[in-house]
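Duplicate of #3305? Posting structure anyway:
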């Protein structure tokens, strides 16, 4: 095998030890969030400064940066658990970590990894058989089955931010999922978050609610709606200030151009009207002119619906998203009985009632803050996902550590029938299962050794419905079925099987390879991928503006290489801008070269750089004003060295602009010598980009070359 120049390799015991340490660290990170008394974690983004408060295992693990390969595998397992079942993300991570902790002890005793794997497989089979034997299926009795669903939702929400109102939200989740009539497609359930009020003010509304408003001077109520859902440009009848370049020799010709664009827009509206609709919902903007044409035709128009919103709307109304309108017979329209504007809090929204998909509904979440609503959304989604899977696989089992202790008992019995060193591995699996109720009790601040010992005694006596009662002061052992502490069988099965497979996978690892090089990466396969390295330089602009010395040509040059090593070609890249400085502002322009410059200047290497069109205009602010601005710039401030800490200051420049359809919020931060702007020690730039196909933050850090 041939590795890249920066790749490191770990083999044998070192590889396994690395896997154990990384996975155990991840398990220890999230185990404090497990159970109804688990703690939340506050996460702050290093790039945007955004705050998130959550105890959801998958959310926590996706938000942290990891360098250990085994830790990343556990993160992926947690993500799969979240995608497939919707809950149990912390449990699967903690159980996998505990299995590896036990495996580490066995490795120290010189037990071969393959023996441990064989023992874990025996134990896993015994545990899953015991879990299935203890599961109950009440799907034949609708009343009992709904009671099971309600109990599962309560159990899921007991460890979430919605725990204080878990009965109310359990009912909401049950009502919403049962409307799906056996389907697991949660896209029919819309969740809308509106700040204000209390969590207990949340409610379920039949139909579909879109967080938009109806066009100006159009009816706010429409019956028997025929809906055309579209994703098309309805904003081309005006020449835009940004993103447009028009070459004319008179203002009259510019007016003629706009008139022609209006006629094209009128023809487009006529093609849309030919579909026989009375409601038009568009993903993109609808400018005043086409909106007025729709109003005159008696068509309700709704603009700028987010893409997720129109996809759901098309789904629940039975329509399809259209982009062209030349063949009305090939376009599938949506239908609903009533469209009307409704007010939620202080906001106006649009409600679609009597939709084609009768199972569609909307849950409106109310709460004091955006962070609270986001966590409530994640919590409710977990409950909905678990319930939808339970409807498909209706078996249920008991929580509160009951299922884990029942499985541990079965595994211990299997160990007695296992010979040789494998018996130690089977016993180790049972010890890992027992750690889950121990962690539940520890997180509740109770005496875990006493409680778990009593629970084990109860299970061994045949009281197989016993579990930990963590909500009673001082704790205790109680009948979980009577308390309604019920969990999905599919969830528990996925936790044990996934954690066991992960532990076996790490035991089999003989080597890990790591490429430490930082790289430019994107989830969009069309984006350029690779590692960027290079230099940035400033030089005075040679453009004949002899009286204005503050025109600078800024140029970046470097190389990009494919971090995967599949392509050895290094691509050279460069970009140039013109900076224009004044006492209060900085403007950045795209550059063009004057092709008519003299041959003499070209031969001297002094080509004339001219500003083409403006990229962004920024206003200078002092350090205090920058810290208090609308954008979070704390992480953008370039660090000072110990020698110049008291001699430097940070100067901010900020602005916003529209580039085609993408909005840029741009911030520059310069660390300069006090009283000398030209003496730049280092600087950074940030572009927060939001658009129809973009949502990203680009951060660049620059340091003066030695």
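Output from current build:
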């Amino acid at each position: 095998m041939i590795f890249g120049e920066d790749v490191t390799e770990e083999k044998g015991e070192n590889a396994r030890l690395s896997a154990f340490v990384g996975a155990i660290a991840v398990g220890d990170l999230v185990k404090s969030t497990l159970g109804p008394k688990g703690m939340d974690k506050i996460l702050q983004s290093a790039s945007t400064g955004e705050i998130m408060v959550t105890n959801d295992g998958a959310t926590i693990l996706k938000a942290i940066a990891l360098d250990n390969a085994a830790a990343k595998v556990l993160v992926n397992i947690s993500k799969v658990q979240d995608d497939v079942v919707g809950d149990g993300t912390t449990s699967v991570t903690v159980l996998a970590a505990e299995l590896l902790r036990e495996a580490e002890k066995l490795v120290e005793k010189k037990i071969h990894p393959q023996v441990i794997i064989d023992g874990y497989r025996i134990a896993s089979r015994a545990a899953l058989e015991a879990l299935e034997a203890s599961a109950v299926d009440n799907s034949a009795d609708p009343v009992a089955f709904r009671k099971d669903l309600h109990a599962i939702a309560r159990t899921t929400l007991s460890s979430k931010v919605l725990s204080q109102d878990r009965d109310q939200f359990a009912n909401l989740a049950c009502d919403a999922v049962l409307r799906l009539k056996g389907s697991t497609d949660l896209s029919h359930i819309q969740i809308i978050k509106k700040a204000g009020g209390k969590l207990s003010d949340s409610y379920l509304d039949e139909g579909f609610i879109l967080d938009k408003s109806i066009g100006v001077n159009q009816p706010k109520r429409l019956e028997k709606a025929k809906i055309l859902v579209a994703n098309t440009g309805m904003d081309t009848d005006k020449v835009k200030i940004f993103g447009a370049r028009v070459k004319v020799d008179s203002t009259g010709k510019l007016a003629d151009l706009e008139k022609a664009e209006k006629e094209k827009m009128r023809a487009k509206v006529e093609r849309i009207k030919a579909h026989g609709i009375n409601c038009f919902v568009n993903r993109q903007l609808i400018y005043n002119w086409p909106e007025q044409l729709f109003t005159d035709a008696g068509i309700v128009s709704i603009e700028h619906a987010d893409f997720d919103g129109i996809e759901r709307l098309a789904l629940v109304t039975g329509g399809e998203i259209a982009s062209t309108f030349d063949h009305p017979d090939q376009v599938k329209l949506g239908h609903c009985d009533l469209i009307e504007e409704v007010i939620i809090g202080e906001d106006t929204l649009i409600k679609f009632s009597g939709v084609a998909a009768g199972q569609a509904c909307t849950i409106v979440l109310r709460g004091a803050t955006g962070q609270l609503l986001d966590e409530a959304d994640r919590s409710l989604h977990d409950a909905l996902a678990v319930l939808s899977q339970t409807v498909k696989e209706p078996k249920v089992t008991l929580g509160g550590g009951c299922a884990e202790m029942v499985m541990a008992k079965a595994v211990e019995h299997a160990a007695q029938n296992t010979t040789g060193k494998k018996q130690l591995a089977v016993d180790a699996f049972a010890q890992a299962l027992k750690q889950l109720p121990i962690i539940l009790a520890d997180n509740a601040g109770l005496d875990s050794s006493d409680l778990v010992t009593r629970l084990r005694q109860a299970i061994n006596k045949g009281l197989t419905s016993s579990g930990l009662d963590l909500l009673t002061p001082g704790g205790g052992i109680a009948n979980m079925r009577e308390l309604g502490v019920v969990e999905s069988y599919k969830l528990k099965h996925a936790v044990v099987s996934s954690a066991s497979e992960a532990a076996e996978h790490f035991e089999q690892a003989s080597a890990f390879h790591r490429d430490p090089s930082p790289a430019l990466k994107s989830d969009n396969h069309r984006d350029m991928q690779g590692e960027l390295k290079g230099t940035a330089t400033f030089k005075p602009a040679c453009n004949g503006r002899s009286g204005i010395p503050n025109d600078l040509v800024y140029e970046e040059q470097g190389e990009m290489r494919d971090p995967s090593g599949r392509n050895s070609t290094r691509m050279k890249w460069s970009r140039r801008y013109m900076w224009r400085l004044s006492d209060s502002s900085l403007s950045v322009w795209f550059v063009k070269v004057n092709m008519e410059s003299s041959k003499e200047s070209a031969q001297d290497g002094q080509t004339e750089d001219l500003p083409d069109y403006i990229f962004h205009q920024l206003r200078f602010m002092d350090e205090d004003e920058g810290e208090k601005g609308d954008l979070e710039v704390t992480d953008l401030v370039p660090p000072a060295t110990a020698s110049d800490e008291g001699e430097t200051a940070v100067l901010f420049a900020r602005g916003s602009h529209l580039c085609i359809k993408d909005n840029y919020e741009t911030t520059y931060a310069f660390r300069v010598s006090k009283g000398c702007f030209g003496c730049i020690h280092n600087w950074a730039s940030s572009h927060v980009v939001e658009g129809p196909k973009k949502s990203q933050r680009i951060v660049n850090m620059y340091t003066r070359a030695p």
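Confirmed duplicate; merging threads. Residues 251-273 form the longest helix (23 residues). The two ends are 39 Å apart (CA to CA).
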